[in-house]
Specification:
Helix content: 40-55%
Number of helices: 13
Number of domains: 2
Number of strands: 9
Strand content: 5-15%
Shape: globular
Structural class: alpha/beta
CATH superfamily of the largest domain: Carbon-nitrogen hydrolase
CATH architecture of the largest domain: 4-Layer Sandwich
Distance between the termini: 20 Å
Strand order of the largest sheet: 1-2-3-4-5
Largest sheet: 5 strands, mixed
Order of helices and strands: HHHHHHHHEHEHEEEHEEHEHE
């Protein structure tokens, strides 16, 4: 968590690159190191060897490395890093790269964005912290980068000395599961009755919302909704859980809210995992199928008196879903995931660190629920 600010060194090294090739290698090295768990995760998911994962790992780095390669600018002979108008141009180009890799289409694979570290350096600063971090990253490409690094290092040390984890939202509880790849694939009554029993065991007088991981309920149907409503009868608890809604054209990865009185879809995932879930080329060729991406839909959801920013799994690694949600002034962040395929990697830890960093930046409570 507290190591995230190391990312501020990236723009300095990128800005000092003596050639475009070096800038490409620096950018690719940064991205590949930050996403180092992907090859093993892909191998786990597809029960295959490492080669498909390595190819996907390299392909995913192309947008990050490509943007930084195109926007890199060399310096005239005899000029020091960031000197004069050239230095201003380099800073402006880096700011353009920050925006491009944070927003679609490049932002769809914009993992490990250096701005994610803002919450560690400037906890509680909100949008002003984002402005300060953006300015600091741009200045790291200038000749003043040593002074900027010292200032940011001071903020880092202060933050590390006073760091506290964000609170849970009042009345909320996240339930982690350890069901591996079986999660959501068992549609039996016994499976759902066991989950309902877990809800009742986790409930307390102060708990009003219980969050289950992504895909915990499997396929969402009216029959399943009635089963859960009946199971929660006599309880004041509302369950927030992951499920899948299918139709002839494909499916939506969703979060549903269930209480004794109602059951409804709360949130449709804005950006499912590309390739394994979201396959837009199928729609382009008229085939259909795959998960739908509701790219800019439902940035916040209303449940009871809470306005919640929902981030399902992959969305926790990206910049724009959380910023889009925060623009709508949520009162809490809810971040479920299904990480069984990440065994032996750092992917879930990176997701948690990213969510916590954003929660700390904007002073929001956060609840997570993961399956491993």
């Amino acid at each position: 968590m507290l190591a995230l600010p190391v990312a501020v060194l990236f723009p300095a090294i990128w800005g000092m690159s003596p050639s475009r090739l070096t800038a490409v290698l620096v950018s690719a090295g940064y991205f590949l190191a930050a996403s180092r768990g992907l090859p093993q995760g892909v191998a786990n998911f597809y029960a295959a060897d490492l080669w498909p994962g390595l190819l996907l790992w390299a392909a995913a780095s192309l947008s990050f490395a490509g943007v930084h390669a195109v926007l890199w600018k060399g310096r005239p002979e005899g000029k020091s890093p960031g000197e004069g108008l050239t230095g201003m141009a380099i800073a402006a180009r880096y700011l353009a790269a920050v925006v491009l890799i944070g927003l679609p289409p490049f932002g769809i694979t914009g993992w490990a964005h250096p701005l994610t570290a803002t919450g560690v350096l400037f906890p509680g600063w909100g949008w002003w912290g984002l402005v300060a971090m953006t300015a600091g990253l741009a200045m790291m490409t200038s000749r003043y980068w040593p002074a900027v690094a010292i200032v940011l290092g001071g903020f880092w040390l202060w933050s590390a000395a006073t760091w506290t984890s964000p609170n849970l939202p009042e009345g909320w509880k996240g339930v982690d599961l350890e069901q591996g790849e079986k999660l959501g694939r068992d549609g039996s009554l016994d499976y759902h009755r066991d989950l309902i029993a877990t809800v009742r065991a986790a409930a307390s007088a102060k708990t009003r919302f219980i969050v289950f991981p992504e895909s915990a309920l499997g396929f969402w149907t009216p029959t399943l909704a009635r089963l859960w409503q009946e199971g929660l009868r006599g309880s004041e608890v509302t369950v927030i859980a992951g499920a899948v809604v299918i139709d002839p054209g494909g499916y939506d990865n969703v979060m549903v809210g269930i209480s004794a009185g109602e059951a409804r879809i709360l949130y449709r995932q804005r950006i499912p995992v590309p390739v394994s879930m979201w396959q837009p080329w199928r729609a382009w060729t008229g085939q259909g199928g795959g998960a739908r991406a509701n790219l800019f839909g439902n940035p916040v959801v209303q449940t009871d008196s809470q306005k919640v920013a929902a981030l399902i799994c992959y969305e926790q690694l990206l910049l724009w879903p959380v910023l889009q949600s925060v623009l709508h002034s949520p009162t809490a962040i809810v971040a479920p995931g299904n990480g069984w395929w990440t065994s032996g990697t750092s992917i879930v830890a990176i997701q948690n660190a990213s969510v916590i960093a954003w929660a700390k930046l904007f002073g929001l409570p956060v609840v997570t629920a993961f399956n491993r």
